[in-house]
Amino acid sequence: MPPSKNQLTSEQIFAVVKEEFSSLVEGENLEARDPYLTLKADGAIQAQGGFADLARFCRDDSRLHFDLLSCISGIDYPDRQVIEAVYCLDSTVHNHWLILKVALPRNNPRIPSVEDVWRTADWHERETYDLMGVIFEGHHNLVRILCAEDWVGHPLRKDYVIPDSYHGVKNVVY
Amino acid sequence: MSTLENKNPDPLLKNIVFMNLVDEVVNATRSNSVWPMTFGLACCAIEMMATGAAKYDIDRFGSGPFRGTPRQSDLMIVAGTVTHKMAPRVKRLYDQMPEPKYVIAMGGCVIRGGPYVKHGYHVVKGVDLIIPVDVYIPGCPPRPEALLEGLFKVQKLMKREKVLDRTRRRTKPEVYRPIG
Asked: N or C: which end of chain A has fewer CB within 10 A?
């Protein structure tokens, strides 16, 4: 894709987001290879003007125009007792991108769903729920997508223990 | 001959030469028209498709018609990782195939879990835990030549069939009956 004349640098994108949602933004990292913005995980993300509104702003603002949600992933940090939800946003119009990280408490990771902002989020959120146990509040059908319906636990958490058997089929360890 | 007659009171079996001929004819037709099931679970299925395509051409050995239903197939080529979620479906498809039926376990994942053998929480550690397997083909994935060789092994097995002795193939391994 040729460079767009409206393409913003990460610094400029962060400034735009911080200008509108200063109370939500916790910090930023411009030194990382993919610069990212971290958000506070307290009650503010749930409330009005919280995370869902930030997502809608990122999509609708003409300077940002993040029309594509590339990925939602979860990262487990047992030593910090957090699960990070990572959102990768892309703009197919301006050819720039933004990475948002929210460090959620590990014992009760809850974050508002952005399903009604980007339809892509539907399955991505189900996947992150399935494998990491992040609960996306407001999702219309938050059930497992990869593991079987009656699976126990969230397999990609660091403390997950592989069960001895599933429905009578042994998990033989050689 | 007298001992044989005592063992096999069936009048047809008295004519053992005739029955051997029948076996040979039936086995020749059966083994030269093996109908595999269209059934791919992962990347091994790509090699299976290559085997069916022009370059390797499984049709040369009578095995061309990949059937879309288990009810018309003799051979199940389990090509690709069998997950715990898929295992009941595989078992059910196997149960729906008519006897005599044969199973090829294609690739490392199907044989013993392959790369998922230790940390793969979702992978069945060998499809022989759920269905009986006749021929194992190692490789990741096996080349089409290897699959053809596996087919020849199955054909050899088919040539050992007896028309009147249908219990020979009815092996009952210790397999589980999953739900669904």
From this structure: N
The pTM assigned to this predicted structure is 0.80
Which value does ipTM take for this structure?
0.78
Instruction: Out of A47-61, A72-86, B13-27, give the one with best mean pLDDT.
Output: A72-86
* Partner-chain contact A171 B129, CB within 8 Å: no
The token duo for A143 is 């059930």
What kind and span of H or E run contains A59? helix A51-60
Domains and CATH numbers, chain A: 10-170 (3.30.460.80)
- Give which of A21, A166, A143, A121 is closest to A13, Cα–Cα: A21
Query: Is A174 at the interface with chain B, CB within 8 A?
Result: yes
B170 touches chain A (CB under 8 A): no
Task: Verify whether the Cβ–Cβ distance B176 to A163 is below 8 Å.
Answer: no
Token digits for B173?
């391994």
Domains by residue range for chain B, with CATH: 1-31 (no CATH), 35-158 (3.40.50.12280)
